[in-house]
TrEMBL record:
The chain crosses the membrane at residues 32-54, 86-106, 112-132, 139-162, 182-204, 216-243, 255-273, 294-316, 322-339, 346-366, 378-397. The keyword Transcription regulation does not apply. This is Transmembrane protein. It comes from Candidatus Accumulibacter contiguus. Keywords: Membrane, Transmembrane, Transmembrane helix. Signal peptide: none annotated.
Amino acid sequence: MPSFFSLLLAYSFRTAIDWQQVVWQLPYRKSVCLTIVTAALVWCAFGGAGHFVAASIDWQARDVVLGDLVYGDWPISYAIRDGVHYILRSAIGYFLPAALFAKMLGIQVVDLALYLWTALGAALFLLSLPLPQRPGLRLLLLLLVAVMFSGMDLLGALAYWGEWPEFPVRLEWWTRFSYPSLSGQLFWAPNHALPIWLGTTLFYRHWRHPAFPPFALLLCSLLALWTPFALLGLAPFFLLSVLQYGVSQNQKIPLTPLITTILVMALMGRLLTLNIDEIPATSSLQQAGTAKGFVLSYLVFALLEFGALSLAMSLRLRHSCGILWISVATLGLLPLLVFGPNNDLMLRASAPSLVMLLILTLTIFQPANTPPAQGTKPWLIVAMLSIGAFTPIHEFGRAVMVRRWLPNYDHTLVDQQHGVLPPHYIGRFDRVDLQWILRDPAIIPGRAQRQATKVRDE
């Protein structure tokens, strides 16, 4: 049955896009593309994939998920309780290509495969940004803006902690809220970040094109396979597209992509919401205790993370004002809700809006986008970006200064979680419709079986 959905997606792409009008070409000159790809390779080398330097602690769970996908038959089951399998069901799309490659060549290649896969995603993201068309200092500086893009966490840390933060402490959690820098997203959760980044840049580049609606439907299907937070974060922007171009121009939605999107999203919705009630959910006000403390911390956070930069940009933008204010509204609302162990909703669903702010920031530094009446240099924006750069600098510093460690694929996710079945990764496979659609789950091999497989492959 899963192969049916794959064929349906492939056929939908064939019918939704007029391939005769598609032009395949590099978005920049070869020298610029080479510079951007090199930047992506270096950027990702400081992240967890590849383990060239010290990976963040969250990679301990990501490594064992990757190992489980290599050693296990899909769908993976970790336990049978009361006759029901508990399966891996969340945020695994990022790992599947590397795991499939390692199934063919052995576990020893999986870390390098995941690094190259990560670098490919980061390179495509950087290539999709509005960067200069020619090599030179401006290109390097704007690439640095993308890699170092972050809110002004340093000012918040100084205000709340009362002292200069030790290096390389995480600046992003100076209060109960947190919007991670792009480097923070890449280093700590690339399985969520990369599909969100690519989906956001695709939307921004093409959402005004008349042929975009059917492609957008299929994009929703693919994003649901990678991470549920992508759709949540992009939903306000898709709504803008529908209101501005769908309703006003009476565009008709092709039937095949529409049916495909409904079927795939229904399937993923059923899978991703298995025993979702076990994932903690509440409101930030309930966690804060007092309304006064909540309002004060919220206002300071909003000002430093996105408010000041958005206000400064609004005075200079010649276009995309709707995108800007939707981003601001989304970033303003997300801190009010808490979902997931570390409020994954706020951390992940904020990414599309943060990427939109990055894109709009980059456009301001393009000479063609500077209004004649506002030809002065955007020094205030430069100052805010410079202060924000302290956050990713701390991330790079942690990767270099902390002792490097290597992944251990001999343990399962449940072993790594000390016998606990984490509900944000594992779901109770008790829905009859899913049992009919998916093949029977297979219990994940243990340490002894994995070592035997490794010896055989070597």
